[in-house]
Each structure stands twice: as structure tokens, then as C-alpha cells.
Design a protein that fits this description.
The protein is of the alpha/beta class and 539 residues long. It contains 17 helices and 28 strands. Helices cover 30% and strands 23% of the residues. The N terminus is likely disordered.
Length: 539
């Protein structure tokens, strides 16, 4: 658990000042988990100008500060504002405007939801996301047959939960110019009996996405605000969005400056030649709420759609190794350009082969450079010989992926390779830090599910008994650090957030349960009672 408070830090304008200092907010009678260097506890703090002014006991805080705005936390637990270290914040908002297919237990349920959505929306192009054939009785990919019957003229594009596969009907395929003979580098158009089934994997999806009508500005703004509301509801005060266009980054900046978007965003720029040329010339960009200092690169696809690149063939698909999304020479060029800049390189790598290539490419280009904090996003399957590269490279991992994938991951990898998968504790032991996130909307947004999966290594039904590969579970303290101070470190922001300490942004969350002490099975039921950014209540 956490240790008792061993010091109190107070900022004084004049040494020995006897007069009370006016604070904008005083919180007392709380169980405050500071996540400072000693993981100390406190029961009160004062806030001024959007930052923590002092942290300590109620007696100390009340004797030194006064405020017209006081909160008696009534013994509730307060933690630093939670940070999702890898998610798709904007896409969550866009996803909220589409057919929600998450949690469907059969293809028929997918079809039923599409029909219901179309009756209400009457869309000219039906878009959905969230299906996962691994959750169905039949684990095979669906085909477009029923969509063609239901919507012979209306294009339909339904993206898999991980964003690495799509089911499109004939109307959408025709619009995109796709048939059984279409070839795509870094992707796959699945063909059966000489016909395209409608399932597109990785880069093949780009052909359909190119003909989907772009959302207008009002829809984009609504999407960002809807996503913010969802995140604040669940205690997230900062999000690391893993791949944004220049347009959306600039829209986020404008909304933040207008104070309608208050959540803090670490925006990874979606890599492209145009974005590289622009941002490498313009340089990094940083405000109190927006950090644009990294590029998001895709090495391979996802394990669930068999797009992750493995050193040996998939155990459940003969002679299939997955496919690189970005060509090797292109990735090497990107790494070389970024190594000569101040930007971080954050690369999606799932398979052991993709991880090995990215790690070696990082090492070659960074050489003697220090404190670059380049990241591997997911680091999902790593060969034993490659773990040591993580001494200098930050692993950005998602605990709920382990508990979502555990029922079929061994089918893909086999009994030996699975031992190097979702190896969170091993990564932590090598690096000393891990960044924790969800990858939402691939997984649910709720950070309490991240905490639970990290510690218990079980799904919400309590399976598997004893936890999945428990040798790689994290402690509660390690998990909370991964969701706060270590996630901030991964963004070069540990001096301004990630813990409750004087001088840092007053981002904090009031919980109805003490997640450091309650039975781990109670953590998913923990509710957020209040979310604060800069000392302002935003939920």
C-alpha cells in the first residue's frame, strides 16, 4: 500500500510569513494518494492559479491558507488526474456518431444494430465500428452476403474493434474500385471462391475510407466534445491520442484556447511525408493543454486480425506471417529524420518480428543520444532476445488487451510464443517504467478496468481463475504510477502533472472507493465522484 506522509511542501512569498495565504480551493478530510517520489499520503491540499499550492495535513493547510471555496472530501480517496497513455480520443468521438457494434455476440446482432441505426439516421453511407468475430460462436470472418441483401445500393463499411479490419458491402467495394483482383501493399483483400468476401485488412481499408464522406466541422467539434465528456465522467484529465491529422490537432488547439475543450491532449502526429515536412520545419508545439512533440508510426497490424508480423508463421494459419503496414525502408527513413529532430517516434508494434525491427531501428538511429523517450506502442509480442532493447525504449502498453485477447491469443501464437506476450512486468523490470493506456475505443474507456486488468489479469467474469500469466501482473502502486506519473514521463510532462505536488497542475479525481485497499474485484465498480482540471470541477 502507500506510505505515510514524510514531508509537507508549502510555497511562501515571504519566509516566516504569519498571514494566511488566499487559495482558490482547499480540499480537506481526504485520503490523498500523491504519487510523489515516496508515494506518500496526505489528507489536505490547497490550490491557487490552477496549480497545487501545498499538500499536507488538514491542520497544516487550514492554518496557512484560507479560501471561500472549500471541499470536505468526507474521507474519500483522491488520486492525481488519470492519464490514458495510448488512446484514440478523437476517434472515440467520431465512433460515438456511428453504429456501435462493440460487444456484439454474433454477426446477426451486428446486422440488427445496423438496421436499427439506419432506420433512425437514414444515412447515405452506413459506418460502424466495434465487431469482433472472436466473441462469436463462429470465429470466422463474416462476409458481405447479408449486407448486400439488406443494402444493395447503400454503401456499408463496418470496422473491426481493433481498427485493423473492415467488412464492406458490394456497394462500398464498387465505390472504392475493389474487386477480387485488387492488390494492396501492407494489407489484404480476402477472397473466397474467386470473389471478394468484403473483408479488408489493414491498408486495404484505406481504399474504402477514401470514399467515405468526411465529417463536417460541426461533427468534428461535436465528436471532440462528446469524447471529452466521456473521459471526464471516468476520471481522465489527460489523453495521449495515438495518431491525429494536422487539421484535428489545430482544431483541438482552437477549442482549448476558446476554453470549450479543457482536457489535456498529448497529440501524436499521424506520420506522412506532408506532416513530417511541415512539423519538422515548424518544430514542436506546447501549451498547458496541448503537446505536439511526437509522431505515430504503424509498423504492423493487429494480432486479432492476423496482421501483426511474426518471426514464425501463425499457429492457426499456415504460412501466414502478417504484413508490415509501413515498408521497412520507409520506417528507417522516418527514424533517421526524427533522430535529427526533437520529436519522439512512437511506433505501433504488435508482432515479435515487428517489435524486433523497430527496436533495432531505434537503437541504430539514436546511438549515443540520451533521454529521447522513443516509445513502442503495444509491445505485445516480444522475443526473449529482444526484451533488453527496452532498457532505453519506453513500453506503452494496454492491460485490457491482455484480458480481451487471452482466450484466442495462444491459438495465434502457440504455447511457447505466448510466454513473451503481454509481458508487462518483464517490461517494467527492464525499463523501470511502463506507460499504461486502453487504446480506446478498441477497449472501453474506463481507467478502472485498466487498473483491474493490470493487477488481477482477469476479465470481468473473474476468469481465468488465478489470473492470466500472473508473473506479468503489476502491483497496485506500479499500476497507478503507469496511469499517472509514468504516463506523464512518457510525454515529457512529469514536471507539470502526474502527481499531487506543489507547483503541478491541480488535476485530480475523487473516487468513492480506495483502489489501493479494497478487494481487487471491487475496483471495476469504483465510481468517479468528481474530476478536476486546474482545480476546476469538470465533472
Amino acid at each position: 500500500m502507500y506510505k505515510p506522509l514524510i514531508y509537507v511542501a508549502v510555497i511562501f512569498l515571504l519566509a516566516g510569513c504569519q498571514e494566511e495565504t488566499v487559495a482558490d480551493l482547499i480540499v480537506t478530510n481526504a485520503k490523498i494518494i500523491t504519487v510523489d517520489d515516496s508515494f506518500s499520503s496526505a489528507d489536505a491540499f490547497a490550490v491557487a492559479d490552477g496549480k497545487f499550492l501545498a499538500v499536507g495535513s488538514k491542520k497544516e493547510i487550514m492554518s496557512q491558507f484560507r479560501s471561500q471555496n472549500k471541499i470536505d472530501a468526507d474521507g474519500k480517496t483522491i488520486v492525481p488526474g488519470l492519464i490514458d497513455g495510448h488512446c484514440h480520443f478523437y476517434n472515440l468521438g467520431i465512433f460515438m456518431q456511428k453504429v456501435d457494434l462493440a460487444g456484439t455476440e454474433s454477426y446477426q446482432e451486428v446486422l440488427d444494430r445496423v438496421v436499427m441505426f439506419q432506420k433512425e439516421q437514414k444515412s447515405d453511407f452506413i459506418i460502424g465500428r466495434g465487431w469482433d468475430q472472436n466473441d462469436w460462436d463462429s470465429k470466422e470472418y463474416p462476409t458481405r452476403k447479408d449486407l448486400d441483401r439488406l443494402y444493395p445500393k447503400t454503401p456499408v463499411a463496418l470496422t473491426r474493434i481493433d481498427g485493423h479490419a473492415m467488412l464492406a458491402n458490394k456497394a462500398a467495394l464498387d465505390l472504392a474500385g475493389i474487386d477480387s483482383n485488387t492488390q494492396v501493399e501492407g494489407g489484404e483483400i480476402i477472397v473466397e471462391n474467386g470473389k471478394a468476401t468484403g473483408v479488408l485488412v489493414d491498408n486495404a481499408m484505406n481504399l474504402v475510407e477514401a470514399v467515405i464522406p468526411a465529417p463536417d466541422r460541426d461533427t468534428k467539434i461535436k465528436s471532440l466534445l462528446d469524447a471529452q465528456e466521456k473521459c471526464f465522467l471516468l476520471g481522465l484529465t489527460s489523453v495521449s491520442d495515438a495518431g491525429l491529422s494536422r487539421e484535428i490537432i489545430e482544431l483541438i488547439d482552437s477549442l482549448q484556447k476558446a476554453e470549450s475543450l479543457k482536457i489535456r491532449v498529448y497529440a501524436m502526429i499521424s506520420v506522412s511525408k506532408e506532416n513530417l515536412d511541415h512539423y519538422l520545419e515548424a518544430g514542436t508545439y506546447k501549451t498547458d493543454r496541448l503537446n505536439v512533440s511526437s509522431f505515430k508510426v504503424y509498423a504492423d497490424g493487429a494480432l486479432g486480425s492476423r496482421g501483426a508480423v511474426l518471426k514464425e508463421p501463425y499457429s492457426d494459419r499456415e504460412n501466414h506471417f502478417g504484413a508490415m503496414v509501413t515498408p521497412l525502408d520507409t520506417m528507417s527513413l522516418i527514424a533517421r529524420r526524427l533522430s535529427q529532430s526533437k520529436f519522439q517516434m512512437n511506433t505501433h508494434a504488435i508482432g515479435d518480428s515487428a517489435n524486433a525491427f523497430v527496436l533495432k531501428t531505434y537503437a541504430k538511429n539514436l546511438k549515443s543520444q540520451t533521454n529521447r523517450r522513443w516509445r513502442i506502442e503495444h509491445a505485445q509480442v516480444v522475443s526473449p532476445d529482444d526484451f533488453l532493447y527496452f532498457t532505453e525504449i519506453l513500453p506503452s502498453i494496454q492491460p485490457t488487451h491482455a484480458t480481451s485477447d487471452m482466450y484466442w491469443a495462444e491459438d495465434r501464437l502457440g504455447s511457447e510464443r505466448i510466454k513473451g506476450a503481454y509481458a508487462f512486468k518483464e517490461l517494467l523490470d527492464i525499463n523501470g517504467r511502463v506507460i499504461l493506456g486502453t487504446d480506446f475505443p478498441v477497449e472501453k474507456v474506463d481507467p478502472m478496468l485498466t487498473f483491474y486488468a493490470s493487477v488481477a489479469r482477469q476479465d470481468l467474469s473473474g476468469l481465468p481463475e488465478g489470473g492470466f500469466q500472473m508473473q506479468n501482473g503489476l502491483s497496485r502502486e506500479e499500476t497507478l504510477k503507469g496511469m499517472t506519473i509514468w504516463a506523464a514521463y512518457g510525454n515529457f510532462e512529469e514536471e507539470e502533472k502526474g502527481s499531487i505536488e506543489p507547483g503541478k497542475f491541480a488535476d485530480f479525481v475523487i473516487l468513492d472507493k480506495n483502489i489501493m485497499e479494497i478487494d481487487i474485484d471491487e475496483v471495476p465498480k469504483t465510481k468517479v465522484l468528481g474530476t478536476y482540471v486546474n482545480g476546476e470541477k469538470v465533472y
